[in-house]
Amino acid sequence: MGKGKILVTGGTGYIGSHTVVELCNAGYEPIIIDNLSNSNINVLEGIKTITGHPVTYENIDCKDYNSLERFLEKHSEIVAIAHFAASKSVGESVNNPLLYYRNNILSLINLLQLMAKFNIKNIVFSSSCTVYGQADVLPVTEQTPIKPASSPYGSTKQMCETILQDAAFANKDLNAILLRYFNPIGAHPSAEIGELPNGIPNNLLPYITQTAAGIRKELSVFGDDYNTPDGSCIRDYINVVDLAKAHVVALNRMVEGQNKKNIEIFNLGTGEGVSVLEIIRTFEKATGVKVPYKIAPRRAGDIEKVWADTSYANKELGWKAETSLEDTLLSAWNWQKKLAEKNLGN
Ligand code: UD1
Fold first, then answer.
1. Is the CB of 129 under 6 A from ligand 1?
2. Cα(263)–Cα(284) distance, rounded to whole angstroms?
3. For the chain, what is the mean pLDDT?
4. Is 1's pLDDT higher than 70?
5. Can you tell me the mean pLDDT for 20-46?
6. Nearest C-alpha to atom 2 of ligand 1 is from which residue?
7. What is the 305 CA–ligand 1 centroid distance (Å)?
8. pLDDT at 55 over 60
9. 153 counts as catalytic
10. CB of 276 closer than 6 A to ligand 1?
């Protein structure tokens, strides 16, 4: 393993696990910490099957400063951190805001304090298009004004961005790249890892695949009266492996000293807006499986439409989303079928 150790917080989670695989492919040595609050330990087996070797893992909660400190004392020579560990359900955050502020803010503060102590200079942070709220002009660029967040989850992402900006201003040795994800979907083409939310899914794709598999009776399409061509909401759905690869590019950029400022922000999407009804139709076409659905009332906190202007990431990072929507939806379905084989579906 040549390129150094990367601490991956939340590395057994959905985006974290796919990034761990891409880090291994790129010659890094990822080490995972996760408290398994929204992931399953079996993910480590999937990673091992894909990469051919086990990845170091410890059950640590990033809110626990002392455990984190002890862990970092044991693991010297970490060149960068990819920080995924966070709560991410919009609806849950509305009902339980303090959980979100505690989890998402405290974890980042602990990490930043310990980075200074252990001389770790680089961090990639999982931000979100949620920071834009409902933008007036689409697609959104990194310069699009930040509107008030529509949920406590969104507030935590905005606050974490501010914390990172302030920390990077105060400490010029700190390099941070903030990646604003649009809607990550799909699974690894091997179907060894994918999205596995605990309990009833909140997000569209796991709900679709579980409905197609017969685990859920029908999908509720939240609203068909939005100001969009077919009335359903529009998002920018990005393949999770493409997204994971962007993390490797961002980490390379900092580790190799190619970053232009000590804090940089990139939109990670495809640049294409797709409606909920289009996703259902494309899923059915790609897989040949029907998704029973009904039109339901709008969901609180949803914005109408958002998609990314990705030209800055394309140009500066030399990165572009490559996988087609059909292939991505098929990968999500293959993962769902694999879960059924392993008896791991919900
Ligand atoms: C939200 C956040 C995003 C975050 C993600 C993490 C916003 C604007 N976006 O994405 O930043 O990364 O959560 O969880 O805050 N839908 C249905 N039926 C369902 C589920 C979803 O119709 O059963 C619709 C939603 O109304 C939405 C679309 O599908 O239009 C996508 O929803 P979802 O997958 O939950 O993601 P977002 O809410 O867009």
1. yes
2. 42
3. 96
4. no
5. 96
6. 130
7. 11
8. yes
9. yes
10. yes
Q: Number of helices (H) and strands (E), helices first, in the chain?
A: 12, 13
Q: Rounded to an integer, what distance in angstroms lies between the CA atom of residue 185 and that of residue 203? A: 9
Instruction: Kindly give the distance from the C-alpha atom of residue 69 to the centroid of ligand 1, in angstroms, as a whole number.
Output: 35
Q: Is the CB of 204 under 6 A from ligand 1?
A: yes
- Residue 315 has a CB neighbour count (10 Å cut-off) of 10
> 286 pLDDT band (50/70/90 cuts)?
very high
Q: Quick one: tokens of 197? A: 């939310």
What domains can you pick out in the chain, each with its CATH number?
5-345 (3.40.50.720)
Which atom, in ligand 1's list, is nearest to the CA of 184?
Answer: 12
How far lies 150's CA from each of 93, 101, 128, 136, 346, in Å?
A: 10, 15, 13, 15, 29
pLDDT, tens digit, 9 for 90 and up, residues 328-339 = 999 999 999 999
> Ligand 1, atom 35: nearest CA belongs to which residue?
203
What CA–CA distance (Å, rounded) separates 131 from 135? 10
Task: Please name the residues in contact with 75: beta carbons below 8 A apart, sequence gap of 6 or more.
Answer: 5, 7, 31
**Per-residue confidence band for 345, with pLDDT thresholds at 50, 70 and 90:** low
Query: Where does the chain have alpha helices with state H?
Result: 14-25, 43-51, 65-74, 90-95, 97-100, 107-118, 152-170, 204-212, 240-255, 276-287, 311-312, 325-342
Of the residues 28, 100, 153, 181, only one is catalytic, namely 153
**Do 147 and 166 form a contact (C-beta atoms < 8 A)?**
no
